[in-house]
Design brief:
Blueprint lengths: L1 H27 L4 E10 L9 E6 L5 E5 L5 E8 L1 E8 L5 E9 L4 E3 L2 E3 L7 E5 L12 E5 L1 H6 L17 E4 L5 E3 L3 E3 L1 E4 L8 E4 L2 E2 L22 E9 L11 E6 L7 E10 L16 E10 L1 E3 L3 E2 L1
Parallel strand pairs: 1-7, 1-8, 6-9, 15-18
Antiparallel strand pairs: 1-4, 2-3, 2-5, 5-6, 10-17, 11-14, 12-13, 15-16, 17-18, 19-20, 21-22
């Protein structure tokens, strides 16, 4: 009897461990996803219950569905970061499609529909406009999108340097900053007067700060990825949700994902003393050359299913 109980304990323990890990991972990943929500109504403003709303990721082809409730409201949660088109349809009404919707990390994007009466086969396409005010959250922050990450000059190719594009952020170069072979280069930043070591740094929902200096570094203990691996990131500076643990700001980054289209890039970043100005009282510049080469490649392993 003791031998039977022993064998039963092992799979039960493994199952409990897996469930616990999943329960811990899901809340942590909340900052890497977003939601699309809104209201569906007819041309007169009356709400339409029972309409089918479809959100499609234009990069990966992934589709998620929702149905409007009795008040005409819908919500499609747990959507990965990316570009979307959202469609609503119901018998007796024209099908309406909103295109050009950008979903950022942790965002709730409101997409409202007005459905004219007509055949379901009739299609009305609406190009989305970027809202000037976030009406779903009181959080204050800045999103650094893929275009900024790709185009802005970045010495050292560390994406964390781009936190300086957010208002109220300053680099702290005092005692908290470190530079050695073990931890690499680590410079802290402050936001609106907060303590330099009070920031929280997340990547795909996981805290990547080291235990030693509460930073990410670039040395042996470095936990940060290169800028080419980052899709976008968000700097939350005030009134953010209780799921974040920092007492300063939160840097919430999302790694890049492949899409159905094969894409890539090659680059060289050069620094040369010939482009430097002469510092008084010197009459010449000190010789200096630095070249950084790299590239990226992404695409489908299986269309609409698996990407690299």
């Amino acid at each position: 009897m003791l031998e039977i109980r022993k064998h039963r304990f092992v799979p039960s323990f493994v199952l409990a461990t897996v469930l616990f890990a999943l329960a811990e991972a899901y809340p942590a990943a909340q900052g890497t996803i977003g939601s699309i929500l809104g209201t569906v109504s007819d041309s007169s403003g009356s709400v339409i219950p029972g309409a089918t709303v479809t959100a499609r990721n234009t990069g990966t082809g992934a589709i998620q569905l929702a149905t409007t409730d009795a008040q005409g409201r819908y919500r499609i949660p747990v959507l990965p970061v990316g570009d979307y088109e959202v469609q609503t349809e119901l018998s007796g009404f024209q099908t309406v499609v909103h295109t050009g919707i950008r979903l950022s990390a942790g965002a709730d994007v409101v997409v409202d529909f007005k459905m004219p009466i007509g055949q379901i086969s009739e299609l009305l396409t609406v190009t989305a406009e970027v809202p000037l005010v976030n009406t779903t959250s009181a959080s204050l922050g800045t999103v650094v999108d893929p275009t900024q990450i790709r185009e802005l000059p970045l010495n050292g190719r560390n994406f964390e340097e781009l936190v300086l594009v957010a208002p109220g952020v300053n680099v702290s170069r005092g005692a908290g900053s470190q530079r050695n072979a073990f931890t690499g280069k680590q410079e802290y930043w402050t936001v609106s007067g907060s303590r330099p070591n009070g920031q929280e740094i997340l990547m795909d929902g996981t805290n990547i700060q080291t235990y030693q200096n509460r930073g990410t570094g670039t040395g042996i203990l470095g936990t940060s990825l290169g800028v080419d691996a980052i899709g976008e990131f968000q700097i939350l500076t005030n009134t953010y949700g209780a799921q974040y643990g920092g007492n300063g700001s939160v840097l919430n980054s999302v790694t890049r994902s492949g899409t159905n289209a094969l894409h890539g890039s090659l680059y060289e970043f050069t620094r040369n003393s010939k482009f430097d100005s002469v510092q008084w009282p010197a009459t010449t510049t000190q010789p200096f050359w630095k070249h950084q080469y790299g590239g990226t490649l992404g695409g489908p392993v299986k269309t609409d299913k698996l990407f690299f």
